[in-house]
Structure formats: structure tokens, C-alpha cells
Amino acid sequence: MAENAGQDTTAHAAISRVTDESHSLSFDYVIIGVTGDLTMRKLLPAFYERFRLGEIALDTRIIGVARSALSTETYRERAREALVEFAFSASQDRDGVTAFLDLVHYVSLDASDRAASGWSLLEALLATHADRVRVFYVATAPKLYVLTADAIAAHGLITEATRIVLEKPIGTDLASAKAINDGVGRHFREEQIFRIDHYLGKQTVQNILALRFANPILERVWNADSIAQVQITAAETVGVGKRGPYYDTAGALRDMVQNHLLQILSLVAMEPPTALSATDLRDEKLKILRALKPMDPDTIARDTVRAQYVAGEIGGKPVDGYLDDLGVAASNTETFLAIRAEVRTTRWAGVPFYLRTGKRMARKESEVVIEFRPQPWAIFSEPPKPDRLVIRIQPDEGVSLSLASKDPRAAGFGLHEAVLDVSYAKAFGTRYPDSYEDLLMAVVRGDQVLFIRRDEVQASWRWIEPILDGWADNIRPMETYPAGSCGPSSSDDLLRDDGFSWKEKI
Fold first, then answer.
1. Closest C-alpha among 112, 165, 253, 123 to residue 441
2. Does residue 92 or residue 270 have the better pLDDT?
3. Known catalytic residue: 155?
């Protein structure tokens, strides 16, 4: 590795002309579960892109840990294939890929077993840079988090500069979440624990804060006096794919709402933080999670919808139903849900928040829709549609504001909806980074702003758990919807009863 550190590769030579490499970071990043899909599709490409930008020093080590009996060279070849397939810049940057792979090492080890023989190899590797930032990224099943933390501690690998990253979900219910937090917390202080939710790494999710708090014109109307309803949607056209066995034990509520959608809701609904610090920001998010109106059997029956996709058509091609994708005869796991939620604060009194997520939907889109209240009295013969602010999280990242405008083609004061639209890709003329890029480097810097605190995790489970229990008791029966649709018609009724409709039906 010393020889590699002295090399000035083509990739870094080019980068150094535009980037001050004195700001490059040196660290050891241990990825536990490194042969999994998450590492290949997301983590390694994210590291590579930051390496290309000169943010990662040449003496950094990315150490992969997994049970497979592989050599470092064999793993590097697998990593190269993954980078070419999934990294934005890799196919045109062979020298840069080679330089990056010099940072990658592999240790065969079952990290949840403190008696495994591979620990001595990992200890020896880490001992050569004992004083630098050391990160353990645990990309395994949540049931192994505590065992892994126990083993790391048993081998004396926790230093003052050590952090641990835990992938969502943190548990499967409130009790298991507490057990994980307690177990990992026996060895790591709260400021060393980084609970990752990749939605918080998305630039468009972070931009919710900028839109609200950097633009007083919006923040002054960001309340129940001006806003009639809020919709938060995360729709996918894909099915469960390789995640089928996991997904069937989780479902959409655990997989998407407990973390991603509740985090977005918190950013939309929170009060302005005193400062943009981890403590202040997470304090305000926690207040919103605690302010969610509890779900009882009556509200679960009335204000939730759950469904499972059956065979249908997407993009003109037939697709199978969930049971066929899973290869089972029956399942009680929801692949779609819609929930009407309320935030019991003065700012949001009476404003419904509609959460919706599903697989095999008509379109891939994640967005927040803010619908403003209509004019209290009509002065035009044709009342205008309500103004709407749409924050597009993916795939067409941007923001749009629909306004009523006089139609120059119409006689008199005919109105027409005009849309002010900003595409972030066009506005900034740059590649939109993957969410993991920011998150991985934030851990190295010790910046907790984009990560979830222990009490946030438990507050979200406290709200979600009654819904899980109610669905288990069939308070809200399972429905079906054709693949390629927008979900069951009952999700439309959820809004229609309040006088609203989903954005695509307005």
C-alpha cells in the first residue's frame, strides 16, 4: 500500500489540477457484508465517485468483510465489474477505476462470530493505522447488528475515532429497535452511531430545508392557514426482484414508511431549527414524530389502505403478480399502502398528510405535493385550480409551482394553469450525486446532520406499530391492484372523503 500511496495516477493527477488534495481524507472503512447487492450497486460506486473528485486520499483503505472465501484480487475484479455497471463515470475512466481498486482490500470473516479466525487478519490490517478514522459499515441483516458490535468490541477495535453505520431498518418493531439500540449502545456512544437512511442523502430531500428556511416567501405561508393538504408519494415500477425473501417479511410499511416517508414528513412539517446542526435539526424532527396523531382501530380501518399487486402491464409489457414474483401460493404482505396522517401542532391543525408508496405502479416517482387553499370567494366565472408546489425527489429532480394565469387565447377572464418549473439538472448543469456519496463521507467527518437519532427511530416505530398490529388483526383487509396502475380505488376514496384527489387525478 505504501507503493500505491506514492503513485500519482492519471485520475488523481487530473483531479489535482482543480481540487486541493490537502483536503482529501484518509480513513479505514470496513464494510461488513461487502459481497451483497447494496455494496456493489451503491457503496463502491459512491466511494469511487468521491475518489474521482479528490475527496479520498490515496492511502485510504476500503476493507471488505464477508464470509465468502475470496482473495483481495478476486474481490477487486468483482468490484471492477460492479463499477463499470453501476458507477456513473467508470466506463470512461479505466485508469481511475484501477487506482481506486488499489484502495480495496478483502478479509474472509463472519463478523457476527467473535471466535472466527479471520479477526486476526482484520486486527493486523487495522493496527497499521490505529490512530485514523475507522468506520464499520454493517450492511447485514438487522438481527446481526448487536452480535457484530459485540465482536468488534471483543477484539478491541473501537477507538475514539471509530464510528459504526447501521443500515435501515433498525429492527422490525419497537421492541427489536430498542434491543438493537441498547446492544450497539453498550459499545458505541450515541455520537459514534450513524443510522443511515439513504433518502436523507438525496439532494432533493435536503432541498426541502432550503426551500422552506432560505425562502421567507414560502415559510410565511407554510401553515394550516394557507395549505389545504400534503401528499408524499414514493412509487416504483419495479417488483420485489431479488429482495423478495426480505420484502415478504417486511412489507411496504416497514420498508418505506417507518423510515423514508416519515423522515420526509418530518422535514416538511418541522419548525425552523435554531441552527443547522445535528442536535437542533433532529430535535425538531422528533417533535413532529411525537406529534403524529396515534392510530387506533377506528382510524386504521378508516385512514389506511393496504394492497398487493397482481398481474398487469407496464410499458406495454405484461408483468407477473407479487405471488408469482415471490414463487409462493399466498402472502399477507402489502406492496402498496396509503395512509391519512395528522400532525397535532398549531401550524398543521386540520391539514391531512397523505402517505403513499407502492411497487409495480404506473410510474416511478417520489415527490411531495403541497396544495394551497383555494380563494375564499369566487370572482372568476370559472374557479381556478388550487395552486400546488411539487417537490420532485426522483427521478426528474426539481421543483414546480402551478399558478392560475389569464389565458390570452380566451375571451374575457378565462383562466389557465401555468407551471413554473425548475429542473435541478438543468439549473445547476451537473450530475446529481447518488445519495450514498454524501452519507459515506459525512460519517468520516463525524457529521450527524443527515443521520437518524435513537429517539427518532423509536418514535417512528411507536406510531407505526399499532398499524402493523391492526393489519395483523385484519382491521383493514388486504386488497389487490393491477401492476401498472396507481393502486386500488380505495386509495382514491381516502382523499375523496376529504374533498381532495391524488395529484395525477387532479
1. 165
2. 270
3. no
Arithmetic mean of pLDDT, 158-167: 96
Same domain, residue pair 231 and 339: yes
**Cβ-contact 23, 57 below 8 angstroms:** no
59 is in an annotated binding site: no
85 annotated to a ligand binding site = no
Query: Count of domains in the chain?
Result: 2
* Residue 107 located in a structural domain: yes
The pTM (predicted TM-score) of the whole model is 0.91
- Decide if 46 is inside a domain: yes
> Is 397 labeled as ligand-binding?
no
466/464 Cα distance (integer angstroms): 6
Could you read off the pLDDT of 278-296 as tens digits, one per residue? 999 999 999 999 999 999 9
Distance CA 322, CA 480 (A): 10
505 has pLDDT over 50: yes
255 marked as part of a ligand binding site: yes
**Is 145 a domain residue?**
yes
3-state secondary structure of 387: coil
Tens digit of each residue's pLDDT (9 = 90 or more) over 179-206: 999 999 999 999 999 999 999 999 899 9
pLDDT at 123 over 90: yes
CATH of the domain at 23: 3.40.50.720
Are 44 and 75 in contact by the 8 Å Cβ rule? The answer is no
Last residue within a domain, chosen from 176, 198, 220: 198
Same domain for 350 and 267, yes or no, is yes
On the question of pLDDT at 22 being above 60, the answer is no
Note whether 101 and 140 are same-domain residues: yes
Would you say 359 is a known binding-site residue? yes
In terms of Cα–Cα distance, which of 371, 370, 341, 344 is closest to 356?
341
The verdict on 179 and 34 lying in the same domain is yes
What whole-number distance in Å separates Cα of residue 93 and Cα of residue 49? 11
Q: Which domain holds residue 48?
A: 2-198
| Domain final residue pick, 198, 218, 242 | 198
Instruction: Confirm if 32 and 67 have CB atoms less than 8 A apart.
Output: no
236 is in an annotated binding site: yes
Average pLDDT over residues 239-261: 90
Instruction: Judge whether residue 240 has pLDDT over 90.
Output: no
Catalytic residue among 12, 105, 187, 260: 260
- Let me know if residue 383 belongs to a domain: no
Q: Are residues 163 and 16 in the same domain?
A: yes
385 among annotated binding-site residues: no
Contact 139, 31 (CB under 8 A): yes
Please check whether residues 215 and 109 belong to one and the same domain: no
**In the predicted structure, residue 83 carries a pLDDT above the cut 70:** yes
